[in-house]
Amino acid sequence: MSQLMDYYKAIEDSSAGMLDAARREDWDAVLRYESACAVLIGQLRFQAQLQPLRPEQRREKSRIMQRILRNDARIRCLAEPWLARCEQLLADRLPTLH
To answer: Where in the cell is the protein located (predicted)?
Structure first.
């Protein structure tokens, strides 16, 4: 297994951690996992310039990316009610200008 594929798998693991944290409504943990993902993605982009993937690795990458996208969609569904509550709290605290 190449180092490049290790990055994809680490991003997937972090994505799964984000989903678990979102299910628990632990938004601080979601942000920590999101930060870890951002670092891994930066490292992946650099490494991807140095290491081409073989055909079987590209297929595995595609499967990993699909799982990450599914996790992301689930996280967004879980976060939307939370974001709506935050927006309402902010709206309630801000004075209305007429």
So the answer is: Cytoplasm, Cytosol
Mean pLDDT in residue range 48-69: 94
Token representation of residue 59: 């297929």
Question: Taking residues 74-89, what's their average pLDDT?
Answer: 78
Q: How far apart are CA 15 and CA 7, in angstroms?
A: 12
In angstroms, the CA 85 to CA 83 distance is 5
Question: Could you tell me if residue 12 is inside a domain?
Answer: yes
- In total, how many domains does the chain have? 1
Cβ contacts of residue 76 below 8 Å, gap of 6+? none
Q: What one-character DSSP code corresponds to residue 25? A: T
- Whether 98 is in a domain gets the answer no
